[in-house]
């Protein structure tokens, strides 16, 4: 393995730590259902692949639903009565977070006989370079292993650059908001001082006229 391959492998491994998230949890079955959500963040135009594996089967008295929605209101996917494997890929429409929500309901008319119904869920979220099928790309474009590693590294750098650009834009928006808030606070403080001074002068004038009318002054 040459230096380029070693460097590419190291960079790819470091990046995949943050671009791949795997979780395992339980979703209890309830009569009304209670959504359990996992939130992830993606940048605009980034490819996201969500892979879900569950136990159980369709018709076992549980109805497991999955809904993937973005913070901007976009609904990327919704599927009811999920059992076994489920995979969905989508492209983020904006730089924001998105929620993957699971809701498990007891099937109407099903008698659990005191059993604690629940589903085991294993979920993996891949984003950016990690979400691409590099084996298919290598076969389609007839790339050598070193070329594949270079492509991975190039995509990884693009993802990092996109995230850095988003962070810069976000910092600029926060700075603008902070400056605007400071201006408003400053103007409000000046207004309060003007009002207090005006009220004080009015009270002094009123008291002076009052004492003069009573021939005290």
- The CATH architecture can be named as Sandwich
The count of helical stretches stands at 3
Low-confidence stretches: 3-19
Count the beta strands. Answer: 8
Mean pLDDT reading: 81
What count of domains describes the coordinates?
1
What top-tier CATH class fits best? Mainly Beta
Alpha-beta classification: alpha+beta
| N- to C-terminal distance | 102 Å
The fraction of residues in strands falls at: 25-35%
Quote the CATH topology.
Answer: Jelly Rolls
Rg from alpha-carbon coordinates: 30 Å
Topology pattern, helix = H, strand = E = HEEEEEEEEHH
Q: Note the overall shape.
A: elongated
Major sheet attributes: 4 strands, antiparallel
Please give the order of strands in the largest beta sheet.
1-8-3-6
Helical content (DSSP H or I, runs of 4+)? 40-55%
Membrane topology: Single-pass type I membrane protein
Transmembrane segments: 188-204
Protein name: DEKNAAC101888
Family: Belongs to the EMP24/GP25L family.
């Amino acid at each position: 393995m040459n230096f380029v391959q070693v460097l590419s492998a190291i960079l790819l491994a470091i990046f995949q730590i943050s671009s791949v998230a795997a979780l395992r949890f339980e979703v209890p079955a309830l009569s009304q259902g209670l959504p359990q959500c996992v939130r992830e963040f993606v940048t605009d135009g980034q490819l996201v692949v969500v892979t879900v594996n569950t136990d159980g089967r369709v018709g076992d008295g549980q109805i497991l639903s999955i809904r993937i929605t973005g913070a901007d209101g976009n609904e990327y996917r919704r599927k009811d009565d999920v059992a076994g494997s489920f995979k969905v890929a989508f492209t983020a429409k904006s730089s924001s977070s998105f929620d993957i929500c699971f809701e498990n309901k007891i099937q109407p008319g099903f008698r659990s006989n005191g059993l604690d119904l629940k589903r085991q869920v294993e979920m993996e979220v891949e984003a950016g370079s990690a979400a691409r099928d590099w084996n298919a790309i290598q076969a389609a474009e007839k790339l050598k292993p070193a070329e594949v590693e270079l492509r991975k590294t190039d995509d990884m750098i693009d993802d990092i650059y996109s995230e850095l650009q988003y962070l810069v834009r976000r910092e600029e928006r926060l700075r603008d908001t902070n400056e605007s808030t400071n201006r408003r606070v400053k103007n409000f403080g000046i207004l309060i001082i003007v009002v207090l001074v005006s009220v004080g002068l009015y009270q002094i004038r009123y008291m002076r006229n009052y004492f003069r009318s009573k021939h005290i002054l």
